[in-house]
Amino acid sequence: MTHPASAAPSLTVYVEGIGLLGPGLTGWAPGREQLAGSTPYEAARCVLPLPMALPPAERRRAGAVVKVSLAVGQEAVTASGLSTARLPSVFSSSSGDAINCHEICKALASGDRLISPTRFHNSVHNASSGYWSISSGSMATSSVLCAYDGSFAAGLLEAMAQAAVDQTAVLLVAYDTDYPEPLRSVRPLPDSFGVALVLAPQRSERSLARWTLAPATCLTAASATTMADSALEQLRASIPAARCLPLLRSVATQDAGKVVIDYLDGLQLAVQVEPC
Amino acid sequence: MPCAFDTVDLPTFVGEVAGVDAVVLPAALAAFDCRNNRLALLGLMQDGFAEAVAAASQKYGAQRIGVFIGTSTSGILQTELAYRRLDPVTGAFPPDFSYRTTHNTFSVADFTRHVLALAGPAVVVSSACSSSAKVFASARRMMAAGLIDAAVVGGVDSLCLTTLYGFNSLGLTSTRACRPFDVERDGISIGEAAAFALLEPVPEHLDDDAVLLLGIGESSDAHHMSSPHPEGLGARMAMQDALATAGLGAADIDYINLHGTATPSNDAAETRAVATLFGSSTPCSSTKGATGHTLGAAGGLEAVICALTLQQGLLPAGLNTQQLDPDLPLNYLLHNREQAVRRVLSNSFGFGGTNCSLIFGRAG
């Protein structure tokens, strides 16, 4: 099942749909205007919608991490016109459900260590992937990743490799939520942020952009592309999932060229972008 | 062994690895110090693994080797312990607490990459108990895409209070050593493990007992967060896809290393899935009676057991099981069997309805 590097397929994907939710960002349609600079961006607390696709019991128990990831996932898939049933997914987050984690650690440090079953099963890093599968009915594979501040780039690498190698459209969802104190002091994420991309190996009439990775040179020491707008740059730098913003801006402005996004220390990811 | 881990007061058994507390991290990596990374280091130093990776690094270049580690809870124990030491007035963490290098899910892959002096892509796969089976899938795709030439894959999960009290809250922990497929099975025993493998492209010449990754199947249940699909539908799809990607039929599989957690529902659902595809004659067992359920490390650990099965021609018996459940009609091994095997399949399923099946084979 392994192939020599010389047989590597071209790592090109087409962006078929985008979902976006974050501080001052309420979806891709308004976000596109904000990123292109035609509407001013103003930071405001991220508003998380209820995950109406979940059954009522699950909806009541859904934390921020499920709300943000399901909302952007649904937005991107709807825009792509694809069916969720056979759509593989990649979920990537730097930290998982922050409030749930705090509540468990607090209980375990107290005299009464009994934690609720719901709290426990929501503590797994793949909770949002599981709820996505339940709400969408998708039995396709889902990969759930973490690479600290580079979690968006790690997810993009995984999704682009999967789209190219397995010749399938892939849903990528990257998201983070903010911790309460005391974890906030050691991981000061200011708010929730989620982004979803449907990436396909073939162009369609809905394609928004064409992204390519050059296997030999896409992992680079070059500095990350930054946002010209200072409020958006602050957002990009403060929430790992928001490291996607330079790529989304290139879609919004229909730029062509190279966009470098943060990945690991000393190793960044360079994406060649073109409008469709 | 009966659980005597930390201050845990639950009537359950655990598979605790001896000597983890005594492991000392290299001084330059001291910030990573926590039980999970100590266990990772202990694993990396076994069986000449670090030396094999160093040789691969020479051959391909440190930037052309990826690191893919599965874990469910990473170094969360460090945070659980720090919550007991919060400043009584300010509620602040003790100054020695380091979130990024211990608690964060990525910590164990970051640590592994540093220990092995690798400079390529790195990621943690964290999908509960399928995590370190799915690392093989991620690594395979990245290699096929030409982004890397080789990959360090593995799983590391260590004992912590979150999983012990968490599985207890669901009523899924046994009060004894777990008994997969027993008529009286009553839950899991949580274990811990570090298991690693080095994946390389298939060279022109191979020793007969080289182990090949032949097939991978992945699926989701779309059913429930903490219960498997009752008919094992997602599990069956994962096994079917593994056979399809390997270009094999069910009759080509000589042994199945079952997920076999010893919960009533897992073993029943897995039996339905296996029986539908394989019938009831393929020899199979769960090795969790011997190791406990090592959660995010289980897929990696059982991949290593499969490799040993292929190389040594020994099919491992399922330990602790006294009386097979008559409602689970598989060829479940209660005694070790010496038998040459060519191809074996390993199942790993997890919370959230995540399933992964791997097929390994002998080169000759």
Please characterize this protein's 3D structure.
The complex is a heterodimer of chains A (276) and B (364). Chain A is an alpha+beta fold and 276 residues long. Chain A has a single domain, classed as Peroxisomal Thiolase, Chain A, domain 1, CATH 3.40.47.10. Chain A is built from ten helices and nine strands. Chain A has helices spanning 28-36, 56-61, 64-80, 98-108, 117-121, 127-136, 151-165, 183-186, 230-238, 245-252; strands at residues 11-21, 89-92, 142-146, 170-176, 193-200, 209-213, 219-220, 257-264, 267-275. In chain A, strands 1, 2, 3, 4, 5, 6, 7, 8 and 9 form a nine-stranded mixed beta sheet that branches. In chain A, a hairpin with a 2-residue loop joins strand 8 and strand 9. Chain A is globular. The two termini of chain A are 33 Å apart. By secondary structure, chain B is an alpha/beta fold. Chain B has helices at residues 35-44, 49-60, 76-83, 99-103, 107-115, 131-144, 161-169, 233-246, 264-278, 288-291, 298-312; strands spanning 14-15, 65-70, 122-125, 150-157, 190-191, 193-199, 211-220, 255-257, 283-285, 314-315, 331-332, 337-338, 343-350, 354-362. Chain B has a six-stranded mixed beta sheet with strand order 7-14-13-8-9-11. A four-stranded mixed beta sheet of chain B has the order 3-2-4-6, with helices on both faces. In chain B, helix 1 (35-44) runs parallel beside helix 5, helix 6 crosses helix 11 and helix 8 (233-246) crosses helix 9 (264-278). The chains are: A alpha+beta (276), B alpha/beta (364). The interface between A and B is large, with 77 and 76 residues. Strand 3 of chain A pairs antiparallel with strand 3 (122-125) of chain B, so a sheet runs across the interface.
